[in-house]
Write a structure and sequence with these properties.
Length: 568
């Protein structure tokens, strides 16, 4: 028997990157908000610069709930799904914004209109036959004000490339127009990124520092970055990284209208006979609690969003909440982040420490920024190379087939070349396809007896061709900078569990092919808002976090402005 709690206006499930943003406009409007978080609060001491703890043991993600809920993965239905690796999300106030790289990209305008723009430029036949991709129900211009609000609320550094249609020096010439500059200038360059920038210019390309949710100067009460490193898998010990745990959540708490309940394991979202949600059932210690609310915001990462909806069965929704259309779990994709290029240079690069967000980007080959008329794919990739090398990780460097991976020759090679190698990071357009989906694994369960998420997905020809094309461009860039040896990783197959996971509750105007409307509220349960990249239908060549945060702010603001319509 659950303990019934006093009713509140809004329950937010998950206080990570997106839920932690959504609470701010809600409380600013005077609403009472209960935030349910499966993890707890972390302190600066938890993020001490320690390569063994943060990078090798991957401790931030190895917390109890997530560790026990690792998804199973298979390429397609002809394979048995297997569980392995770790969970890409973590539990804790701030969520993945505690341990992400903090790259804070906007999507390009093309990403919102992939189908119509591709059809207009190249013909409808260029859309991959088996893809379920749709244009978003909103445009870049619709989301731009919310990008702006989030950038200033959390603090994002970067060099603008397009302010109200006016191109700016040192920024991304391909970005969509923005209302104003970033709150802070971009992260500083390094000797290595300067070298790569010079090589890019020799090729006729335009290099720029990518945007990051990392302070480059004092912002509010938080200092600028010390460029000490180790924050790519752990948090920032000085709070220069703009996690929601140190930005929007503390700001919302100041109102007195937000109550944070930690170590709350959500079991089910309940609904009434009309399909409207009535509240959330969660486990706190050994006690089941029921928190009634006028509206519920689900913000627990793509995999857990889908999982919780599917677990929330009822007479009205026998296949899961808001899933009578059968669309929950469909149109899944994870960003193709693999297929890197590895380079060896004849000189030291001085890349010790640093941070992955301290890099240089090339956008000439992203999205539809280049002519695809004679190519056999649509989309592209953002080329990224960065300053980041750590002592222990250096021991795992490639030997480029020059020496064995053991013994005295290996030791000598690593000693000489540890600071002469670099691994690229290429994010590539990824599309949804029929057969790529999320559901509940019929065999693997967590410690409470609930099934984990099963990922059935693989990259298709379009993504593999992009991978090969962008590897060509990355090798060209490395060679121009003086690299002597190049290794290309495999192009990929199965989509494993990823922090860049999209779809499963896609937004769209048609309820037969989408779970939420254009504002992120479920078609079948109108007072249920769904937040995060699970509502996104395309990935572009960009990290999803800032877009998911902007969407979350927009969903929260829509709830405020349409309270009586949505909650009555």
């Amino acid at each position: 028997m659950a303990t019934n709690l006093p009713k509140t206006d809004v329950v937010v499930i998950g206080l990570g990157a997106v839920g932690g943003v959504a609470v701010l406009p809600l409380v600013n409007a005077g609403l009472n908000v209960i935030g349910l978080e499966a993890g707890g609060w972390f302190s600066n001491r938890d993020f001490a610069p320690d390569e063994v703890r943060n990078n090798l043991r991957d401790w931030p993600q190895q917390v109890a709930k997530a560790k026990n809920e690792i998804p199973t993965v298979r390429a397609n239905i002809n394979f048995e799904a297997v569980q392995g690796g770790g969970h890409p999300m973590m539990n804790g106030v701030g969520g993945t914004s505690l341990h992400y790289w903090a790259q804070s990209w906007r999507l390009n305008p093309w990403d919102f209109k992939t189908v119509s723009e591709t059809t207009a430029r190249y013909g409808a036949h260029r859309i991959p036959e088996n893809s379920t991709v749709e244009d978003w129900p909103i445009s870049y211009d619709d989301l731009e004000p919310y990008y702006d609000r989030v950038e200033y609320a959390i603090g994002v550094s970067g060099n603008a490339g397009n302010i109200n249609g006016s191109k700016q020096a040192n920024g991304n010439p391909f970005e969509g127009p923005r209302a104003r500059a970033y709150p802070m200038p971009g992260l500083r360059s390094s000797g290595y990124t300067d070298m790569m920038s010079d090589a890019a210019r020799q090729l006729g390309w335009t290099p720029f520092q990518g945007p990051a949710a990392i302070n480059t100067e004092v912002y509010g009460d938080r200092p600028g970055c010390f460029y000490h490193g180790y924050c790519d898998r752990g948090g920032c010990h000085v709070n220069a990284k703009s996690s929601t745990a140190v930005t929007t959540i503390p700001e919302a708490l100041k109102s007195g209208l937000l109550k944070v309940v930690t170590h709350a394991r959500v079991l089910k979202i309940l609904n009434d006979a009309d399909g409207r949600v009535t509240g959330v059932e969660y486990l706190l210690g050994n006690q089941v609690m029921f928190q009634p609310a006028d509206a519920v915001m689900l913000a627990s990462h793509t995999y857990e969003n889908v999982r919780l909806l599917m677990l929330s069965t009822s007479q009205q929704f026998p296949n899961g909440l808001a899933n009578n259309s059968g669309q929950v779990g469909q149109h899944y994709l994870s960003h193709h982040q693999g297929a890197p290029v590895i380079a060896l240079f004849p000189k030291n690069l001085n890349n010790w420490y640093g941070l992955p967000a301290q890099g240089v980007a090339i956008d000439e080959w992203a999205d539809d920024n280049f002519d695809h008329s004679d190519l056999d794919f649509i989309g592209g990739g953002n080329l990224w190379t960065y300053t980041d090398r750590k002592p222990i990780a250096a021991a795992k460097m490639s030997t480029f087939d020059k020496v064995p991976n053991w013994g005295s020759k290996w030791k000598a090679f690593v000693s000489e070349n540890a600071d002469r190698t670099n691994v690229s990071y290429i994010q590539k357009t990824t599309l949804p396809y029929r057969g790529n989906q999320l559901d509940l694994d019929p065999q693997v369960k967590d410690k409470l007896g609930f099934p984990v998420i099963r990922i059935t997905a693989q990259y298709h020809d379009n993504e593999l061709r992009i991978a090969q094309f962008t590897q060509d461009r990355m090798e060209e860039w490395y060679r121009a900078a003086g690299a002597t040896d190049i290794i290309r990783a495999g192009l990929g197959n199965a989509m494993g569990a990823s922090t860049h996971a999209y779809g499963g509750t896609r937004m769209g105007n048609d309820p037969t092919t989408n779970v939420t409307n254009a504002f992120g509220f479920a078609h079948e349960s109108p007072n249920l808002g769904i937040l995060g990249s699970s509502v996104m239908g395309t990935s572009g060549a960009r990290n999803p976090t800032l877009t998911a945060q902007a969407l979350a702010w927009r969903t929260a603001e829509h709830l405020v402005e349409n309270w009586d319509t949505i909650t009555r």
